[in-house]
Protein 1
Amino acid sequence: MKPDAARPKLAAGFLAGATSRLLPASIPLRYFGAAAVFHLAAWIALAVGAAGAPRFVGGLGWPLAALHLVTLGVLAMTAIGASLQLMPVATRQPVRATWLPAAIWWVYTGGVAATAIGMGAGQPAWLGAGAVAVVAGLLAYAGLSARNFVGARGMAGIVAHGWIALASLVVVVVSALSLAFTYLGWPLFEHGSALALHVPFAAYGFMGMLALGLAYILVPMFALSPAPDETQVRVSAGLGAVALALAAAAAFVHGHATALRIAALVAAGAAVALHLKLVLLALRTGMRRELGRSFRLVRIAWALLAASLVLAFAMVVFPDVALLKTLFGIVLVPGWLLTLVLGMMQRIVPFLASMHKAPGTKLPRTPSSLTAERPLAVHYLCHLCALALLAGAAVLDSAWLSLAAALVGSVGAASFLVFFAILVRRMRLPPAPRSPARPPAPVA
Amino acid sequence: MKRWTEADGIHIDVRGLSAPQPLVQILSLVRSIDDDRTVVVHHDRDPQLLYPELAEIGWSAEIVDGEPGEVRLRLSRSA
């Protein structure tokens, strides 16, 4: 072996060369920042529309705007930002042009804002224009991701999740356009079928499969555990695809819709059970046992994912109980998906930020030095209280409880935004002189 | 995955492992070292996810010369 010191190329290993798999920090951070802002906007929109929230099952208004500020503004925004950075690393692909992710952000963020305003204020023209921009942004993201998946080396099970998510995204986009243009009088197909496609393909298809696939990277990475069994990851992806195909069939084959929906839920239940088995095994066998508040949120989210399937089954069996639909929506979107994304985000953002060197120094930064714990503690309490208040508002049909949920949720979202702002500020400062190393987490 | 010891430290070869196994194996080795020994990593790609984890436990990395197609890192405790 050649002498180590002969030609050290990099101090601390922070790279950003031409073939780097790292995006400039500003690109993922702009997605995460927008998600944090839309998160706060969503709770404020819910406060404005609190009177109509307890029995909300659709239709223009501020509850619909709040829902889409969460789904498009927080969930999809975060998923795009995280996957744009993590997928090239996981699939060993170099980052290609960086202007496209930046351009997508401008188009998509403007589109989300216009869509939310159009929904909340009942302005179909804004809604239509926003929907077109959102669709353009999502399709461009899908193209970038597809190019990355085509060249992927290894991790076939995770890439399969990615492909199913992208296919679901196409269904979401087509059904969303149909729903949006219904308000302009130009539906692409029947409203009930569009809605029956849009909800499962947006939540379980696009966001869900992306979340499941990314979890197979992120959970072992944070827990420092062996990778999940590849065969079982592929089976989980296959079961998810079967469930989505059955749900799509149920949207159009009205005569057998109930049987198809139950079959879809059985397949989805098997996929989720296998997924949870794999990620919980990773947490049990990982070197890092204590993952803190962020993974307490993630575990709660996983429980709510299972609960969402139980509620979906109850909706199929008792289709006339309106309360079930509202509870399902709460458990599915702010319950499972939003809790999962916020839990993961408070770990991913400092981690990705610490991969970029501090200005004017070669000293490395650590994720913990970029993380402000107190705002996250406030957010944790507020988020869980807001979820409980939302469920209570639905059960008791109480606008006051909806308003309370929105206000508590707004405080939590503002705290999360403070966490993000502090992180960006700390990124711009040189790191503090190194203190003695933090004792490592308990090792198995 | 192979491990062996040479005069310049403990070597670990994680080439061919899929993510996150290289990360897990390297950190497992580093966390087991309680003296001033260095670790030499033989990798097939630049392990960008490793660096924040190393910084968190007070270690740093530098790239040193390796075989063609290899990314070789020397890990040591930060000064």
Note: Residues 1-19, 436-444 of chain A have pLDDT under 50 and may be disordered.
Protein 2
Amino acid sequence: MAVNSFRSDGLNQPELTFGQKLTSLNWLLVLLITMIAAVGFLMLYSAANGDVYPWAVRHAVRYGVCLLVMVTIAMVDIRFWIKSAYIGYALVLALLLLVEVMGEIGMGAQRWIDLGVVQLQPSELMKIALVLALARFFHGFSYEEVGNPLNLLVPLLLIALPAVLVLRQPDLGTALMMLAGSGAIFFLAGVRIWKFMLVIAAGLGAIPIAWQFLRGYQKQRILTFLDPESDPLGSGYHILQSKIALGSGGMFGKGFLKGSQSHLNFLPEKQTDFIFTMLAEEFGMVGGLAMLGLYVLTIGYGFAIAIRCRSQFGRLVAMGVTTTLFLYLFINVAMVMGLIPVVGVPLPLISYGGTAMLTMMIGLGLLLGVSIHRDVRIARSGVDEE
Amino acid sequence: MLKSSEQDVQKVFTRRALVLAGGKLTLVGALAARLYYLQVIEAEKFELLSRDNQFNLELLPPIRGRILDRNGTPLADNQDNFRVEIVREQTDDVALTLDKLASIIEVQEWDVRRVLKDVKRKRAFVPVTVVENLTREEIARVAVNAPYLPGIRIEVGRSRRYPFGEAAVHVTGYVAAVSESELTGDPVLELPDFRIGKNGIEKSHDTEMRGTAGQRQVEVNAIGRIIRKLPGDEGQPGEDVRLTIDVELQRFANERLSRGLANRLPIDDPRGQLALGQASADVVEAHIDRATVLVDDDGAVVEPESGAAVVIDVHSGELLALSSVPGYDPNPFNHGLSAKDWERLLSNPRAPLNNKAITGQYPPGSTFKMLTCLAALDSGLANADTRFFCPGHLELGDTRFHCWKRPGHGWLDMKAALAQSCDVYMYELGKRLGIDKIHAMGKRLGLGSKLGIDLPGEREGLMPSRDWKLATRGVPWQQGETLVSSIGQGFVLTTPLQLATMTARMVNGGFKVEPTLVKRAATGGGDAAATFESTGLDPRHLEEIRTAMSEVVNGDRGTARGVQGADDDVKIGGKTGTAQVRRITMAERLAGITKNKDRPWGHRDHALFVGFGPVDAPRFAVATVVEHGGGGSSMAAPIASDILREAIRIDPLRGGLTRNGTSAADPVQEADQQGVTRSSGGTRG
């Protein structure tokens, strides 16, 4: 209903009908997302040496279910999400706590909740719940109010609680992603630049102290990242083999199903974290750039949706989700190319893994919802219409 | 107010969102740049590393060349070695499968334990050897039961086999696992079951018998499992080495040498059992794994003799037998000898590991006397008719040099002096010749330096000279030492190979034949004049020496007249020698111990004989040394003449007699039937 959106700042906003919502759904974005998921299907087929089992089929089924979830979320009135933002946050935080408690029994790193049918990874869901909660908080704040440091205490607490829990799992990658994503929302909400400078300076100063608290394997990963050739058969093995796979792919790749590094198992975790390497080995730089292009388009859409949204909540949610997608992409790809240390972050919508896909699709559902409800005005309190 | 605030917020958001988007774009640009760097700029390097990962070079060990005797009978060949392996990933229960296997073929308890340990340590697809060296019947049993033996498979490798066991061990040598110091960087040497020549021909011709390894690329995955084998270079099998040795003569010589003067009885013979029952423990030990026992005329067990015999073709220099006893079995070295067995070989006083034919250095004793005579003839200081009187000794200054015959020989010419082995006659010649001329003649006849035979460990012997004495002892040469040298005692040392070569050069018309062990097409003719340079000796002088050597055997007073043989036997010539190892001490003399038999083995004289035959047209020369064997006439002559006559008898050039003519009573064959050496049956009728 493009005509509606250009009406004067109408106080009487008509409720959108289901049909209207369905037509105003950004189908191009849905197509883009589906294309990315289809690439995932192909690569998982290749990872199983040309078999839809065990990964590709389940990936497709999951995508189908998640697609429904995404569209459903997009249909829901954005005011519902602002109302339930804190409740959602609280629920996911509770799940995180549950994992923490169960973790005492697990094998070191406990990140899962077994719900019988699915295994849920609350730290993934928290990435979106945090975006919603922060957007809810900053919604309706004036620039001056944001400038008051005291007003930042609550959102900082919102970040700190899950971050500490995730760090205790220990999952440094996810914790850093949460911090970066939240940082972006703070930045967009108008938090003064000097405060960021202060935090960055403090963070750098804290590195030597933080080093003491890192686990052995985390230290090793960072050391290995700094000099991967020092230990080619140990921790450096993965990243070295990944670089070999990428480099030997060359400009046009070795061909679908023909990646020797992947198919002879030199490449670790090729169906999850290192799936981009496999793609770039088999389809070369051309394939790799095309893949990056799909993501860049998706992120670009997210940016456009955010800019055009009339409510601060919608803008922050759209930009927060987009940033989360970007962080997944950047951390994963930079990691497999040896630009940053190995952290367990999947390639969104392509890597095999249920929760990550669900998280991303919920996020994208919210993004699409923002797009549909871009003209819906939301009261400052977030609860009632003005 | 409210509106403007909201607009402020939106303005800040838009501005900052643009900054954020720009930042993201930059970072994605960095990813793209990194991709370009890895996949375009560094592509070649990673392509290479990727191929390294994907393919392993697999070496295909070449088949080792065989060692054949002059008739083509293999002395060393390769045997299929069937083994049973188990692959863990192909069976549900390794222990159960091994149990089933043990009910089909014999599997040792400790093998089972070793396998159970190994399968856990190695990757699931890596085969572990269960049993090796299976018989064909055992293979058949396993093959038939294969459906009930999941994970079990039969593989065939090759191991070196010496069908004649110890008979030719000093010639063939043996192969064993490559040691650290032998690694040259050639990867084939690093294969776990690769064997390298450690001794004998196996060592000296190792490179040509080794061949070249084939190569094949195999595609492997990250844990080393072979995915695919690509066609490759098959490699080059090693070359066979054909020897001049006749293995039947070699075996005859070995048996004859070790038997000495005793009788060989099967070990289960009642007389043998009786003798063994009375023998001391270490004597019994020496017979413990043998099928026969040596018993002397008094019915007592005697230990096998220790010594060497060399048979050489006097025209071509080809060695038909190069025998050294005792020997040892080269087969166990293939899989590694136990420390205990190795220790036993090392500590044996009769030195089975030494090839005495080329490494044993003995005083030649009287076998040297022809050389002294030749030197005198050649220098014109004497002729065949030159006569000296032997009163039983010769005085030189204050020293009295004895003849072996105390009462003396009386007047003798050269022929009689050689036939009766008079020492005084040689002293007289030596006194006139001086050491220089004797030394020069020794060199011409091949003494005092290596003959360059194709075996490791050959020794030089010693042909003493003035320079040598001054250099090594720091004192000048004494004339008395010349006298001692002229009867082959003192400093003179020779190897049996040198003695055989010396004899060959005396009887072949005076050509410097060189002993060879490896058959080469070029030396096939056997024409010494065409192949070798002349010694420059006068044929008439050589003829006189030959006549004298015939007299040793065939003359009425010859020291070896005991081996004349019957009238229809081939006539041979030769020379006995008895080399003193230790003087008989005054204490021994007072105690009445003058006979060798009464002295400890290591104190007894060496018994020597050099010979040739037939007398009228010499074909072969022989040299025999029996360590501490007593007298040349009594011990060495009978052995050497038997070996020489056997060489002539089986000589294909003589026609008539064939290899199959060997009589059934042949003791070697008897021993063969007793199982002393196995698996030679094919070559005999």
Note: The mean pLDDT of chain B is 86.
